[in-house]
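Assemble and predict.
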Amino acid sequence: MSSYPVRPSPSGSTARAIVLDERALPRRWYNVAADMPRLPEPPLHPATGKPVTPEDLAPIFPRSLIEQEMTTERWIEIPEPVLDIYRLWRPTPLYRAIRLEQALRTPARIYYKYEGTSPAGSHKPNTAVAQAYYNQQEGIRRLATETGAGQWGSALAFACAQFGLACTVYMVKVSYHQKPYRRSLMQVWGAEVHASPTSLTQAGRKVLAESPDSPGSLGIAISEAVEDAATHPDTNYSLGSVLNHVLLHQTVIGLEAREQLALVGEYPDVVIGCVGGGSNFGGLAFPFLMDRLQGRRQVEVLAVEPTACPTLTKGKLRYDFGDTAGLTPLLHMYTLGHTFVPPGIHAGGLRYHGDSPLISRLYEDGLIGARAYPQRAVFEAAIQFARTEGLLPAPESAHAVRAAIDEAVRAREEGLERVILFGLSGHGHFDLGAYDAYLAGQLEDYEYPAELVEQALAALPELPR
Amino acid sequence: MSSYPVRPSPSGSTARAIVLDERALPRRWYNVAADMPRLPEPPLHPATGKPVTPEDLAPIFPRSLIEQEMTTERWIEIPEPVLDIYRLWRPTPLYRAIRLEQALRTPARIYYKYEGTSPAGSHKPNTAVAQAYYNQQEGIRRLATETGAGQWGSALAFACAQFGLACTVYMVKVSYHQKPYRRSLMQVWGAEVHASPTSLTQAGRKVLAESPDSPGSLGIAISEAVEDAATHPDTNYSLGSVLNHVLLHQTVIGLEAREQLALVGEYPDVVIGCVGGGSNFGGLAFPFLMDRLQGRRQVEVLAVEPTACPTLTKGKLRYDFGDTAGLTPLLHMYTLGHTFVPPGIHAGGLRYHGDSPLISRLYEDGLIGARAYPQRAVFEAAIQFARTEGLLPAPESAHAVRAAIDEAVRAREEGLERVILFGLSGHGHFDLGAYDAYLAGQLEDYEYPAELVEQALAALPELPR
C-alpha cells in the first residue's frame, strides 16, 4: 500500500475506470488517409509492377472492403449489424493506472485502453467482425485465413460464428501442436482448423512434397489461405493487420479512448502502442494523430516493437512482399526483408517483417516515433503491471507497458505532470508459457542485426523507389 | 442473424450491457444470516464435539474474519482499502443475452452477471481481497492456502500482491504438473507455489513417507496449508468457499446485479448459479433471497451442480468434516461424505463433497431449489453460449448456462415472458483442454450413485444430529 497521493485529473476525477454506455459507441471509423500530408505509395502487382486495381483484388476481397482499402474519405459509417456485434464487448474500458502510478511515485497520470475484454481476448475482433459482415453481405459463404499462434484466427472464427459464415483457418503446424488451446477456442466458435502445410492446397502439397516434416510458417499458411479463397467462388480471404481497411476498423479503439479521456478532462501528451503489422497501434493512435494533423493538438505518438523484430527502428522503407513466399502484392512499407526469420521471441503478434504502409509513411514523415525493447525488459514491466494493476498483459501489449513505465519514470525525474495513454491490446491468458520461461530465467534478449536487414533488402528484386 | 424480435425491458431498454460507474460500487456486504428463518447449526470442534469458539479459530484466522463468520448483523461495511482494490475490476458488467434469446426464440429475457473480468478471471478475488486486507490489518505477514486447479490460489496470490503479503499456495501435485499455467499466474503475482504433498509440513512428510509418488489431493493440501498457518505466528490460513464470511464477501455480485437490473426496470423471476462450495452461488443469490425473506418479492433461486458431484440433490444434511483427511471442524451441511472421491469431471471448482452451511440450511428450508446436470449437456450449452454471446464460460459457470437455456426454452414452450438471471462466474481461458476433450467426443457423463453416499455417511463417526 503506497501512500503516494493520487493526483486528480483536470476535471477533479480520481476514478479508476472510465466506462462508456453502449450509446457512446462510435458510429463511424476514422480514416487517417484523409489527413495525411503524403499518402502511402500504392501497392503494386507482383507480376506487372503496376498499381493493383480493384479487379486484381476482387477474387479474394469483397467490393466494399476494396473500396475502404482505397478511399480517402475521412469518416466511414459503421454498419448497424457490425455495431450490434461490437456491443457484445464495446465500448471497452479505459483505466487509469493509479496503483502503478503510486508504485512508480510518478507525477504522470497513466491511462490505458483495455481491449482484452473482447471474446477473443484482443483488439482483433474489431476488424474481424467488420470483414465477416461485408463478406456475408456480398454473398460469400466462407472465409479463409492464416494464423500463427492463433490470436487472429480465433478473432475471425468468433466473427464468422456471428454472421453464420464458415471459417477455415490455416494454422502454422508447429503452433497447432504446441499451442492447442487457441485451436480449441477456434473450434468452439465453429471454425475448421488445419495444421499448415496441408494437402488441401497446391501450395501446401508442394511444401509437403519437398519436406514432409515441415513445421510450417506464416508465409506458407498465407499462401494456402489465399489459394483456397482464389479457387473457391463462395470463399474470400481475410487478413488481420497491415492493410488500410484493417487499421480503419481498429480506430474505434482510439475514438472511444479520446471520448473517455475527455470525460475526465484529459488529453494525452503521449500515446503509446505496440506495433506488429500495425493494427493495434493505428487503431489507438490515428484518432489522436487526427487532432495533430488537423492542427488542434501537439500529441506525441510512440510505436513500440521488439529488438528481435525491429521493423521501424532498423528496417528500411521500400517495396516488399507481404508474405515470406513472395506471392502477394508489393507493399510500400518499412521492412526487414520478406525473408526475415524471426528468432523465437514470445510476442508472436509482433514478429512480422513489415509494417502497415499507413504507419510506414507517417513514421517516415516524422509524425510517429518508434522505440525497440528486448524481451526481458518487456516481461519485467508486464509483471510490475500485473502486481499493481492486476491484469496480465499479452506479451505484445507488454511492450507498450514497458514504454509507458519508462515515460512515467522520466516524468518523475523531470518533475513533469505528463498524461500518458497506452494500449493494452490483449490479455496474456494464453501466454503463460512465456511468463513461465521468463520467471525461470530461460528468456534471452536478442538484437536483430542491421547487417541482416541490409542483406535481405539487397537480395530483393529491382523495384520502383 | 436471427430476425427474432428483441423484446424491450419494462423500462423500454434493449441495451446489451448494463454498466455501473464505480461510484455505484456497493459499500456494504449483505449477511443472509440476519434474515434466515433458521440459522445453520454451529461448527463443532472435532475433538470435543462442542461448538467451535473464536479462540479455537484464532491460530489461523484474524479476529475480524472470525467475527464475520459468527455475526448475524445484516450489513457489514466494506473497508475503504478493499473497495479501492475492487475498483480494479468492479462493478462487473451485467449483460443481457440478446443473441442467445434470439437463437432460442424465447420470450424470456436472459441476463447474466459476468465475473470473468477480474484479474484472476473469476469471482474468487471478491473474498481473497477482503481476507488479505483483514489479515494485513492484524499484523499477519503471510497467507497459506490450498488450491486444486488453481482458481482460488491465483485469486489469493493476486490479493496478497495488492496488500504486500507473502502468499504460499499448496497446489495439488497432479494439477501442478498438468496445469502449469495457473501456477505461472500465481507466480507472476509473487506467490510461492508448492506441489503438495511437500516435505515442508508434517502432514506432507507423512504422506510422502507412505507413498512417495502420491499425486496429492485437495484434502492433503488443506492439511498442509492449515499446519503451515498454525505453526507460524506471522501466517494465517485462507479459504476460498464454504464459510460464512466467504459467502458474505461475495454478495457484492448480487448487490450489483440487483442495482443493474433495476436500471432497466427488471426483477428476475429466477436466479441461477452453479454451486461447488457455494461462494459464487451465495454471492449472486443472497441479495435476491433477501427480498424474498423480507417478504418483498417471490423470486425463485436455483443451484446447479454436476451429476458427478450431486451434493444437494443426492447428499444428506448432517455434520461432516470439511476436508478429506477429517481434521477440520465439523460443519453442518449437505455432504456426500468427506471420503468422496470425485470422478474426473472437468469442472474442478464443483468437485467439493460438501456445501456451505448457509446454503445447506436454506435448501433444507425450501428457499433454494437444486438441479444436477451431466457434463456433456453442460459443454453443449457452453458452446451454444460462446457462439451466440461470444464469451467462453468456465466449465463451472457453464452449469448455470445450461439451466438458464433450459428455463428459457421452457418459457418459450409455455409462452411465458420470464426474466432469467444467471451468474457467469468466470471465463474458460484456462479450461480449453476440457473443451478440446468435449469436441473430440472424449467426455463421458457420470451419475454419482446414491448408494455410495449412503455408504460414506454410514461410515461417519457418531455425531449430534
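Chain A touches chain B through 45 residues (CB under 8 Å).
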